[in-house]
DNA sequence: TATATATTTAGACAAATATCTAAATACTTT
DNA sequence: AAAGTATTTAGATATTTGTCTAAATATATA
């Protein structure tokens, strides 16, 4: 199995959850700490941490430690892969 | 929960499987019967039928009966929804 | 009408997933 | 150094998912 297929698997797996897509929508607007992100949902912090891990493994987000906080940012470049795949369906 | 979210859920759920993405890649090239599609994979016909059902529920494909055969076609218009969502991440 | 072909439906099962609580780790502040 | 805050890790559990075999349905052909 090619590397490309694994990448696409990880990306689509990451996108296959409404909470994770909402996290991306939040990060699209501004960088946020794990706690800030968790506060936006009625889900426990450990669960949000798990979602962040899946998004990170798919390279859809990056994280950087800032004191006690971990700040998450969106990585828009990886979306290019999905975009290219989608575009192959445009006629 | 809005209708839009359900649509996106169904689409992303459908795309979250390598076999289903391959089926779409096949149908991108030409319409095919369920049997022809199944022959392209080392998976049982009932399993492929199940995958086709998921793709159909997401409106990613359509089907038409032709004698004993059921011919599947891709529905590219639904990809527009995904495309638009992806494009919101471009800068 | 009987048989063959094409496809789906039903039911079972193992693996993956989303969630939770409790505990661990890491950093900050007093 | 102790206590507080932020986050993750560990482990458990219910639900969802992908797959299979067997059976049902629908159409075609001999």
Could you characterize the architecture of this molecule?
Two copies of one chain form a homodimer. Chain A is of the alpha+beta class and 91 residues long. Chain A is built from five helices and three strands, in the order H-H-E-H-H-E-E-H. Chain A has a three-stranded antiparallel β-sheet with strand order 1-3-2. In chain A, helix 1 runs antiparallel to helix 4 (45-57). The model of chain A has no long low-confidence stretch (mean pLDDT 94). The interface between A and B is medium-sized, with 25 and 25 residues. The structure holds a DNA duplex (30 and 30 nucleotides).
Helix count of chain A equals: 5
Low-confidence stretches of chain A: none
Mean pLDDT of chain A: 94
Percent of residues in helices of chain A comes to 55-70%
> Alpha-carbon distance between the termini of chain A?
27 Å
Oligomer: homodimer
Gyration radius of chain A, rounded: 14 Å
Largest interface: A-B, 25 and 25 residues
Strand adjacency order, main sheet of chain A = 1-3-2
Could you give the order of the helices and strands of chain A? HHEHHEEH
Shape of chain A: elongated
Strand content of chain A: 15-25%
Structural category of chain A: alpha+beta
What profile does the largest beta sheet of chain A have? 3 strands, antiparallel
- How many beta-strand segments of chain A? 3
Gist?
By secondary structure, the first copy, chain A, is of the alpha+beta class. In chain A, 58% of the residues lie in helices and 15% in strands.
């Amino acid at each position: 199995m090619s590397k490309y297929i694994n990448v696409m698997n990880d990306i689509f797996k990451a996108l296959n959850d409404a909470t994770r897509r909402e996290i991306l929508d939040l990060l699209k607007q501004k960088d946020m700490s794990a706690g800030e992100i968790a506060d936006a949902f009625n889900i426990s912090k450990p669960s949000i941490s798990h979602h962040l891990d899946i998004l990170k493994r798919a390279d859809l987000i990056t994280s950087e430690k800032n004191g006690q906080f971990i700040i998450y940012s969106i990585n828009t470049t990886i979306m290019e892969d999905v975009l290219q795949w989608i575009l192959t369906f445009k006629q």
